[in-house]
## 1
Amino acid sequence: MSLSSTPSAAFDLPPETPTALPGFRLWKGAFDRAAQVALLAQVTAAEATAPFYRPETPGGRPFSVRMTNLGPMGWVSDRAGYRYQPTHPVTGAPWPPMPTILLDLWRATAAWPAPPDACLVNLYDARARMGLHQDRDEADLAAPVLSISLGDAAVFRIGPAQVGPTATVRLESGDVCALTGPARLARHGIDRVLAGSSTLLPDGGRLNLTLRRSGRT
Ligand code: MD3
Ligand code: FE
């Protein structure tokens, strides 16, 4: 019997896949099929209180990606700008809790003393994309960002923070990557989703979950 009142499990990681980009850490197949099914079920259950919605940019352009969040804080975008907030912008309800398995994954990979306080969930249909951008809305840009991919594979693009050549990496269902240190301010995006490459999502498409420290908690 553990003395801790907050039980935690270790997350069993496969060997890390080497990458050519300092700070870009990749674990291919970190979630096996059963773990993917279990995580998908938790996201699907959370949709009842936190439905996917289509944000718009501060300039008023709709995202092609639909979004929701889990955890105390969520990333949102609208005409007022990009920010973290504790409630769903459409329903006004608090975001659903962060799944325990994601806290376990963070502990196993992040080398960061505090847990993530936000999990942005991106839903891509076959035509959705995400343009090159930096993630810099978090209070402490030294904390890593952790990503989990589910469903159809995608072509992920990543390049230096300022200017320079970009590289592409195929992200598949169950893959986990961490953006740490020199990669934390990398420019990155999703060029395209490879429709039909996975049977995980009943209607096809791709989910990406990113664990973050918003620093607003
Ligand atoms: C590199 N999501 O939500 S995940 C995002 O697949 C985002 O939905 C993409 O970019 C997706 O902001 C890419 C991989 C990722 C996540 C965060 C990063 C790469 C990153 C933060 C810094 C650098
Ligand atoms: Fe990003």
Note: Residues 24-212 form a domain with the Jelly Rolls fold (CATH 2.60.120.590).
## 2
Amino acid sequence: MLFDSHAHLDDERFNHEQDEVIARAAAAGVTGILNAGADMESSQRAVRLALKYPNVYAAVGMHPHDAKLMVNDDYDQLAAWACEPKVVAIGEIGLDYYYDHSPREIQQKVFIRQLDLARQTGKPVIIHDRDAHADILAIVKDQGKGIPGVFHCFSGSVEMMREVLKLGFYISIAGPVTFPKSVKLKDVAAQVPLDRLLVETDCPYLTPHPYRGKRNEPAFVRLVAEEVARLRGLELQELAEAATNNTKTLFGLT
Ligand code: NI
């Protein structure tokens, strides 16, 4: 019983293979997949995938990379999608100061407006944070009050984890936790309270060991969960059940 809380099955690397990839995930014990949008086109594809596959859910949102493309009508479109039954979150949204594909002020503005959208539509948020820890925390503290959500593919320190937990957010652990050099992330994965922990693949990116370098897919969330369980001295089953229940609680799935 596993749940991949963050995937991009709509990515062109899965074209014409989605049936097989979803079947392999089911065979690996993955009972649910949340497909995150990253721009308007992929958000639309996420909505369609969720309609097509019973165990796939959608999030819609504009990733910070393309924040500069966001126009007013896009917020209305996101709000309309957010009302569809299998659209369970606004995401992925946030800040990315590693690539800086959009100017930082625009990333911040678009992030804040999508937090507003989450509040208006009553949806949780999926936050992308790369090298923007301080600004993300400041914005969420200031503008995100009362909005539930998750820091996806968490990459901060244990100290940052504590700040995120104080804000009521969940922490999602992805494939890099399996890399031998991810000492900081292994620390975080060992210490997140069991009732605040999610697991994900972020596929097709961030493929866990020993498949690093190949395309990632939801079945590999098992490798992430196995490593997190090992770090905590838990059985896979116990970890998987907790993470799956957390995912369902956060996103309102029954
Ligand atoms: Ni992602």
Note: Residues 2-250 form a domain with the TIM Barrel fold (CATH 3.20.20.140).
